[in-house]
């Protein structure tokens, strides 16, 4: 989704903002722009990538502050005119904006003397500010009164000719301030400026920030407040490719490390216990009637994996709902239901909306996310972090494994509190989880073979992923990865469902990829493999059996119990990656997709 | 600002099975790869731009070092697709260094101090190349250097007889003229080109300087060298013991436990031992003078001495690796009186109650059944059961 960067200070203003835009590329975008302020404003914007914008910009500048934006189109097509920053009639106010202004048409109508150039909702903001300034208000007053008129979810940053300061407003759309000796930064997320500072402050809804080279003033409910600073432990290197062709491949290889961080300090195999530092006590968990998980995309599949663990280990009825489909109905006992929102970014609009709906119905809420300080952590009663480190590739990889591992820890925790799992059994599941990083490394060590198989089947008509129980969510995730980055037709099905319809699609040119490990009922799925082989389809299987003669290609999965399907998923990630790579796809920025989906 | 190139593309076949899935520079001593010490020495000398020449199993290097920010350096990767010698590796640098700019070249698998890097960098600039040299006890294992004052005359690789104890320390300052020398230099019978041949050729008609160095210089040639270098690093450097140790566990000095390792009740971790991340040592187990790679599990009651335990290995309950000395055969050569309990490749599973005799080498992904008694060398992906 759209990205914001702002900088004021003594550093190389133009270079910092251009670099910031490059850092934000991973979010997905179709146009970009910059406004430089050196007393007067100069605005440069282009449809296309940051490199195109760079060639339209001057090579150096005397500006002392600047704002930049990457746009992912919602209102109006990707064009030079619709790119941000947007300006007032006289060109003295420039604005970059994330989110949606719902009442922009009404506001535009009220500004009848103003000329609007773009199709965007954003453009009303600089015009409103211009009108307020003309009426004699100070810049801060003008921004405050403009904000009061806006309806919707937004974060925006304003620069004004003749005033070197930057002004930022946050409402329901994330905005982070970075502090350094050489100046102050604004970003829609931390990677925008992480190579310059790791000292940050997260703005809250309704905050207005005023940035000067050496200080940031924040007004909350009209009063100046002391802004809390925190240090992020993100390495800037984690936001760079480190010798890999794509972030996705780098992130696939980071999975053993990410997973060790996820479980670090949280398990005690001697006692068979888990500590997630959650304020969910035994009596509450024992009284729970149901758990509902809300999530989108890959997080939704992690939720599906977790639901099967929660039901079998903690003996609690668990439903998983695509967040945009979530509604509360009379069928739920909201008081005795725990709602878990799973979102990598913590900013997914659909998931936030579902979580707010659930919270307003009266139940407890828990966020499972990768992002400290994200919106979901403020909306939910409790938060649990997956600790995967920053993920830049649009196709989620390491965050899936860390989400499932975190949710597995949560399942064991709840099961122990509800006394549905003995310490001995908990220990064996936790030891299996501890073995997953090493098992995944074994898969990574087999990459050359996976590459060969992927290249052999790359030109197939379609790909069908099948599995049962824990193998089913992995089949859905495997198919999602492949379609996201290779643009091939790929679908995941419960293995038993094939014969109820999808089997009609199977031919000798549609490979079937099957999860045949522990936790995925492999004996039953063998029958489905025979069904597709009878139609001539080649079968590629991830199996924990030593020698599975049925399969055309077999990938070995080490013995890690309930987590074998999770290890199998790494084979599917690498398969998808190498199919896409063989076709020369833009793997880190697939067409039409965005990393953090902040619109509903 | 001078750049430094570090050669880290080689496999290190003599160190099998440890190098089955990782290049030699990624072997951990004191819980950090050899290459990390080299990068630290370069960074400490104030060099900020590093080129890593990578090839064999390069993803291991790239995943660990990324773009180098954690070490405050910028790392650029140059891929040597086929490993055709050090000369060939250096030739890959040509597009990445400026036409008239000198650069430093180092080996990625030798422990050195920043002073050597500084001395080579700051040596007089009238020479066509500068070579760091050091004195060792066993020069015939290395490139022996003959000099005339501060001028290098020749480097002879692994001579059978030598009167000199001065060897090439593997740190060079080169100018782009070296690329032409490498091009022209004779190759070995296997088609490999050695950087030292090109430097010797260069010395025949232009001045090549030497810089003498007498601080730490450690090479890892054989499996058992990894253990002694590990012990040496633990003795000389700060190495954090974190992770979780049970109240009744005993962890001595000169031990390094990674943050996510656990040591169970009544277990003992003795001197010279490094436990990697996510390693678990079970109740009552004893580990002495050993390197345990990440994700490995040593089950309750096991005894492991003088050993290198690969990544994700499981050593079953009450299994004993006695340790001590043995005669070990590597690539047809016998080495006597070698301190080595066992070297165990990645992902191998050793059952319960197994006895492993000194000097045993086990490949990766093998399985040893309960109660077996093993010795000698066992291949990868092999199953051994009690006879």
What are the key terms here?
heterodimer, A: 600 residues, alpha/beta, Glutamine Phosphoribosylpyrophosphate, subunit 1, domain 1, Rossmann fold, 3 domains, globular, B: 387 residues, Spore Coat Polysaccharide Biosynthesis Protein SpsA, Chain A, 2 domains, 8-stranded parallel β-sheet, 7 helices, 17% helix
Ordered list of secondary-structure elements with their pairings:
The complex is a heterodimer of chains A (600) and B (387).
Chain A: E1 3-9, H1 13-24, E2 31-37, E3 41-47, H2 50-56, E4 65-71, E5 86-87, E6 93-101, H3 104-110, H4 124-134, H5 139-149, E7 152-160, E8 163-171, E9 176-180, E10 183-187, E11 199-202, E12 208-212, E13 215-220, E14 223-225, E15 230-231, H6 247-253, H7 255-263, E16 267-268, E17 273-274, H8 282-287, E18 290-295, H9 297-313, E19 317-322, E20 337-343, H10 349-360, E21 364-369, H11 375-379, E22 382-385, H12 398-417, H13 423-445, H14 447-457, E23 463-467, H15 471-486, E24 490-494, E25 512-516, H16 522-534, E26 539-543, E27 553-556, H17 564-582
Parallel strand pairs in A: 18-19, 18-20, 20-21, 21-22, 23-24, 23-25, 25-26, 26-27
Antiparallel strand pairs in A: 1-4, 1-10, 2-3, 2-4, 5-6, 6-7, 7-8, 8-12, 9-10, 9-11, 11-15, 12-13, 13-14, 16-17
Helix pairs in contact in A: 4-5, 7-12, 7-13, 9-12, 9-15, 12-13, 13-17, 14-17, 15-17
Chain B: E1 3-8, E2 28-29, E3 32-33, H1 34-44, E4 49-54, H2 58-65, E5 74-79, H3 86-91, E6 103-107, E7 110-111, H4 114-122, E8 129-135, E9 143-148, E10 151-157, E11 166-174, H5 177-184, H6 195-205, E12 208-212, E13 218-219, H7 223-236, E14 244-245, E15 250-251, E16 255-257, E17 262-263, E18 268-269, E19 273-275, E20 280-281, E21 286-288, E22 291-292, E23 297-298, E24 303-305, E25 308-309, E26 314-315, E27 320-321, E28 325-330, E29 333-339, E30 342-344, E31 349-350, E32 355-356, E33 360-362, E34 367-368, E35 373-374, E36 377-378, E37 383-384
Parallel strand pairs in B: 1-4, 1-6, 4-5, 8-12, 14-17, 15-18, 16-19, 17-20, 18-21, 19-22, 20-23, 21-24, 22-25, 23-26, 24-27, 25-30, 26-31, 27-32, 30-33, 31-34, 32-35, 33-36, 34-37
Antiparallel strand pairs in B: 2-3, 6-11, 7-13, 8-11, 9-10, 28-29
Helix pairs in contact in B: 1-4, 5-6
